[in-house]
Specification:
4 helices; transmembrane helix
Amino acid sequence: MDNLTSTLLTALLNATVMGAIVTALVNLLFKARFERIATDIKSQSEQIGLIYRSQYTWREQSLSELLGPINILLSRTEKAFKRLGPHNTFVEARILKESNEKIRDLLLQKSHLTPASLSGDALALIEHFDRYLEEFEKLRGGQAPAAEAPFVFVGPAGFPFPRQAADNFQAEYQSMWQQVYGHRG
């Protein structure tokens, strides 16, 4: 029995050592794989975070530097246009002309902040305001208009105010405000 016990003990010891070696190797393989997966997940999570922060920052800039000012200027010109009456040259020369010029300049200077869905609308507004300012300069030549001078309108000349484009800009302002800041109270 001594020989059998010795053989059994040797076989048991060899099996235990081999089992421990195989277990250690399997653990090393899985550990390296799990560490790689954890590193990949962390890297992807950081990339997603950077993209989100970049998009959020762009939206904030678009709101504060482009859409917000355009929204208020469009509202201002709409209210001024409703007050436009015979011989109200202040409304025409100051409010309408200056607001139209500011909107056009914002669209040109801050075009990188224009949402892609509004590119065509931006071009329609720019075209209208360019034509308006050109006609204003032609009719007024930088001088105060005479009391009987007609107001500057470019709609009849084929450049009507692009109402839908303005509405789209104002709707995008409201929508983006909701996305960035949440409900407006």
